[in-house]
Amino acid sequence: MKYVINGVRYHVDTWGTGFPLLLLHGFTGNSEGWKEFAPFWKDHSKTIALDIIGHGKSGSPPDIGQYQIEESAAVINSLLEKMGIGKIDVLGYSMGGRLALTFAVNYPEKVRKLILESATPGLRTEAERHERRIQDKKLSEKIRQEGIKNFIDYWENIPLFQSQKSLPEKIRTRIRCQRLANSIDGLANSLNGMGTGVQPSWWDELAHLEMPVLLITGNLDQKFCRIAEEMSKILPNVKWKTAEDAGHAIHVEKPELFGTIVSGFLSQTGENNTNGSKD
Fold first, then answer.
1. Tell me, what's the pLDDT at 279?
2. pTM, whole model, 2 decimals?
3. Sign of the CA dihedral 95, 234, 108, 21?
4. Which part of the chain is the AB hydrolase-1 domain (predicted)?
């Protein structure tokens, strides 16, 4: 399905029946990456997989302001209104996790449950954000100067995705094709408009989120395990699951485990989790 919001075209895939579940992919990804989870979630969730601005089949406008993470959260709110949906569960991975958290902070009344896979509330200090903006600007220039293929060659080989090297070739090819389907403008503008360096820090807002939150990390991704540990000490109603022998993208590296964990969390009723509980 296509929706136009603020002059930008947004692509949305839906399947399954039940309580609405919004799925938000990571940087260079798209909604296609979630389709293999239909067997896990289709009986209890109506999944809504969005191509985030600058990705997949959604538009890639030139205005950086339309990529800002709070603007993207407002777009999600408008999208839900257009779809006649009042309250949802939200699952976001990496960049999509930052967007999911932003939506939960800005529209807490709209979120029943929140699932964050390898996500961060942002950088705590302006000095850190300034340094990240410089790094992301360099990356965006690399995309524009060298093109999508050369950038994806580089992106696939950063340490964050080292654990994906052992995945079957068929899976690695599928992921690469998804990444290559993006546009130069979309990825470059996404880095400059929605990068960690330009988003607000939500660390101080975590204590105010009352909905049940599930954090999922891979034990090989030590940086995001440390972030999840910090978050789990602040969030009032949280569970933290760590997948063994998995890196940053648990849903890619351990799909059956990921699908089962998410399904279990969404199917639970009336939980009142202790702060920082970890399984």
1. 54
2. 0.94
3. positive
4. 20-255
